[in-house]
């Protein structure tokens, strides 16, 4: 099976090389088609995403992507947003799970967040009213809301999860968030064996810190999902330990959710755990569950020894050393 590989910017080439070496060590018949997108390509060609990237994605359907730099407040729009819009990648799914003996706020945590990926304030519908005023339009539709909520319930049903919690701010945004909540209530009625919970986003942020184990599957809108998923990552040790996938009808892009970390690029210090967990999501998706479980078990073994911790975890292990340890643990 051929998979599109986009190394990305900063530490992206280093961590995707680690992922590639570990998957190759499994010898499960995966071939890589490597294509370039991001800042380096933009500087050379004046485009973030060359045509050969689109062609590869549309041919292979499955993508492993390294982090890509996005300027803050100026310059080009996010590559991630562009790909999500072009391919209608409506579901962003982020599992947050404790690993090994990594120091963290919460032990033995196992949550998964479903974030609607195509609308809300992140649709980017903005208008400059004057030099002193700008508007951003929040868009919520019934069809997109139902699609993501159903995805969460179907996952809960298939994986014997006990509850689904919907997160909104429907007490204030009664039309937009009210619509999302109303849709979630309707879908929940179709799954009577799964407990359905409702919570406001500000309370959710507090409850995730106080008692995150009261939750199981979480589903929410685009902006709230972006913020809460980072908060959840902090509970298990940081963004370097959390993967994500953007799923559409026939195309799926798997990735680490952290940034490109240009300050440590090329120094062999990057932690590849997040991209490796993204690989696990990818292998589950293509029905290679034995292979994904081998990587997860290897990561748990390696991260149970503090001698294997990379710099972000307070250790001195290099990217290559970590990769070699995971391959050995396989």
Automatic annotation (TrEMBL):
SMART domains: Iso_dh. GO terms for molecular function: isocitrate dehydrogenase (NAD+) activity; isocitrate-homoisocitrate dehydrogenase activity; magnesium ion binding; NAD binding. It catalyses: (2R,3S)-homoisocitrate + NAD(+) = 2-oxoadipate + CO2 + NADH; D-threo-isocitrate + NAD(+) = 2-oxoglutarate + CO2 + NADH. Its cofactor is Mg(2+). Residues 2-326 form the Isopropylmalate dehydrogenase-like domain. Its EC number is 1.1.1.286. PROSITE patterns: IDH_IMDH. The keyword NAD applies. GO terms for biological process: carboxylic acid biosynthetic process; isocitrate metabolic process; tricarboxylic acid cycle. Homotetramer. Dimer of dimers. The homotetramer can transiently dissociate into homodimers. Catalyzes the NAD(+)-dependent oxidative decarboxylation of homoisocitrate to 2-oxoadipate (alpha-ketoadipate), a reaction involved in lysine biosynthesis through the alpha-aminoadipate pathway. In addition, has high activity with isocitrate, but is inactive with 3-isopropylmalate. Belongs to the isocitrate and isopropylmalate dehydrogenases family. This is Isocitrate/homoisocitrate dehydrogenase.
